[in-house]
Amino acid sequence: NLGKLTERHIERFMRVLEKCSIKTKMLAGIPIDWYIEQLITDLKSYNWYVQNSVIEVIETLGPEQINLLNNEILIELGRNVLQSADGGARKAEEFVMSLCKTRLNWSSFFIEGIFLETFINHNGKLRFKKYFRYAVAALLVTEKQDRERIINKAIELLKHASPKGWLTEKSFQNYLTFLQEGIEKTNGSRKVHLERFKSALEETKDRILKELDEEEGF
To answer: Is residue 8 left, alpha or beta, with left meaning phi > 0 and alpha meaning psi from -120 to 50?
Structure first.
């Protein structure tokens, strides 16, 4: 009963808790709010073993607990899950690839973070990462109103995006080709949303390539 603990007891408990792994905290039933920062930090570790352990915790907690996090944290968590997959953490790769197949109802804000991270970072810098296909597939199984919100945000981000490093026509081609394939295979609101996103990406491509050419004096 925390109400009967003294301030000193609580401080000692928190010090012990800080030294525990996130898996230990999860198994002990500690609320995820108490260690979400450590969870995200571990995803940024560039250590596959540590990153894989985080994914196992996310999968074990499931949508029932992960979805209780606030929306901005969910987006950040999604971005870092995608980064781990892009970096080669096996569990993260498998998790991202499974999202479009699972019946688990992950928060649309979590999916949003995964999707956005495949082409634009949190600073508005455009660059492309692996697993774009799986992220788009996961996006397409979200509810219509959630998908529309995410597409609207993605389009707005593209309007103000600047390149991270040097981009060429080829940099965009795989993504545009996949989007066209998706458009041809879908219908209804899913098709409309893919068409809108593809159009925005094409406009961004033309703008950025023009700006890069001007910088080079062409």
So the answer is: alpha
